[in-house]
Amino acid sequence: MTTYGYARCSTNENKQDINRQKRELKALGCVDEKNIYWEYESGTKVDRVELNKLLDKVKAGDTIVTTEVSRITRSTKQLCEIIEKVKEKQLKLVIGGFVVDCSKGELDAMTDGMLKMMGVFAEMERNMISERVKSGMANAVAKGKVIGRPITTIENLPSSFIKHYPKYRSKEINKSELARICSISRQTVHKYVKVYESAEEK
Q1: Rounded (5°) CA angle 54-57-60
Q2: Is 75 an annotated catalytic residue?
């Protein structure tokens, strides 16, 4: 029986430090860092690479720990799907101090209800944040400010990508490995590679 941890932040390492979650996961029982799966992805994204790897890896009797329900997902629908997976695989799910024991393949009605309520609040919080962001953007536009992501250039590529790109270029690692090391998607790696190669050609 093994304890695994899952940590997630929405933006990249330059804006959010995921190490705090890792420390908290160790305090919750996932003492071996190699068993901590982590990524920088939106909590509403369904197909998350590291979460899927973790759910495929765990076996009956294993435990998954996370700091709060919003780290796993901000979608009530996806949370229900994860709960079913936990029951199917007979796992324990620890969310902060809340223990969901499905090691016998079952979940009592009270725990099930509380867990789903936590999911509803996580989704509601996300929607409220989204509404505030949209309101702020509309206000900024009304004041004549330019809204949108800055153009990606070699000057603003993440330091982790710049550091590990030479390994990809020398074929020591492939795009998937580079994406994992940098905690970004393969699509983002492809975009960054094009930016880097275009800069080199100039």
Answers
A1: 110
A2: no
For the chain, domain boundaries:
3-122, 154-201
What length is written for the chain? 202
Architecture of domain 3-122: 3-Layer(aba) Sandwich (3.40)
Query: What pLDDT is attached to residue 92?
Result: 93
At residue 76's C-alpha, the angle toward residues 70 and 82, to 5°, is 80
What does each C-alpha distance from 180 to 147, 185, 188 come to in angstroms? 30, 8, 11
What is the edge-to-edge ordering of all strands in the sheet holding 36-40? Answer: 36-40, 3-9, 63-66, 92-95, 98-101
Q: Could you read off the pLDDT of 140-164 as tens digits, one per residue?
A: 667 777 555 667 777 788 888 888 9
Cα 197 to Cα 192: distance, rounded to the nearest angstrom: 9
Single out the catalytic residue among 10, 103, 160, 185: 10
Rounded to whole angstroms, how far apart are CA atoms 166 and 171? 8
* Separation between Cα atoms, residue 164 and residue 153, nearest integer Å: 17
